[in-house]
Amino acid sequence: MGKQHAHALDRPRYNRLFAIGVGLDVTYLVFETFYGWQINSLALIADAGHNLSDVAGLLLAWAATYITRFRPNMRHTFGWQKASIMAAFINAVLLLIAMGSLITESIQRLQSPVPMQGLTVIAVAAVGIVVDVVGALFFVKGEHEDLNMRAAFLHFISDALVSVGILVAGTLYLWFEWMQLDPILSLLISVGIIFSTLNLLKKALHMMFDGVPDSIDLKKVHQYLIGLEGVVRVDDLHVWAMSTSDIALMAHLVIPTYNSDDNFIGAIRERLLSDFNISHVTIQITRHISSQECVEITA
Questions:
Q1: Stretch among 109-118, 155-164, 262-271, 275-284 having the lowest mean pLDDT
Q2: Fewest beta carbons less than 10 Å away: which of 54, 105, 125, 138?
Q3: Which CATH architecture has domain 11-208?
Q4: Which residues contact 275 (CB under 8 A, 6 or more apart)?
Q5: Top CATH class, 218-286
């Protein structure tokens, strides 16, 4: 199906990161569930349920990075790269559902507060903070490169914040024995996470509908193309995300003096990759404006 393009996504490294992330989450999930059951802590058991959704989200993102490696064929000429965008969208939905269930649980606990074993809750939450911060550090660099990496980063950050809330609630409970602290803090944390997740959901939905990626200034791309030697018009300029890390461009350049110089197109591809991180470029060049209706992008 043609020459394979170089992609920015370092898949072996990402696979290792997701494996580490899943391992950390599963280990803490078992640890938290055991102690939550031992002391009958609704806070810990509820958070363990939230962590279970995070494990599912990480596995989904990990699977997407593998699926995107499937080669193009006669039925899927772009391969399966959109799987990573779909995974990011589903991940955002899962995170919103998890936060919704946490809010529901917090409201119920406000109405029927339960006593806590403060010291055990503090110890388990402290372990959770360490695990989640370590997990977030693994993904912090890649969260600006790939939407699934950002989803994984947000999962760990949200878990860390929830664990902080549980730790604070356990500490204050030891001092004041105010049982409403846990649900109140959980509500505040959940609302903050929802705002971050809605932004992730918006970006994923935008990419699913082939919107111009946020990292691309389309006017600057157009200015570069129209500024090329001999170009008098740029038509049918399209920029979209093939995956959460790979960007594609298609454009029609009208160059009356064009002499079939392959180096000219090669230079355009190199410049678009270096300046705009656009890795998949398709350029059509004609000497005359087509009689067919074209879409012209104006700056």
A1: 109-118
A2: 138
A3: Up-down Bundle (1.20)
A4: 224
A5: alpha beta
Residue 52, token pair as written in the block = 């279970």
CA proximity to 21, closest of 98, 177, 136: 136
Check pLDDT > 90 for residue 35.
no
CA distance 24 to 3: 38
Of the ranges 53-67, 74-88, 125-139, 180-194, the best mean pLDDT one? 125-139
pLDDT per position as a tens digit, 12-30:
567 788 888 889 889 988 9
| Rg from Cα positions in the chain | 25
Give the integer Cα–Cα distance in Å for 169 and 164. Answer: 8
Tell me how far CA of residue 164 lies from CA of 124, 144, 158, in angstroms. Answer: 11, 25, 10
96 token code pair: 């919103």
CA distance 61 to 152: 8
The rounded distance, in Å, linking the Cα atoms of 16 and 5 is: 23
List all residues 6 or more positions away from 250 whose beta carbon is below 8 Å from its beta carbon.
Answer: 236, 237, 238, 281, 282, 283, 284
Task: Write out the residue limits of the CATH 1.20.1510.10 domain(s) in the chain.
Answer: 11-208
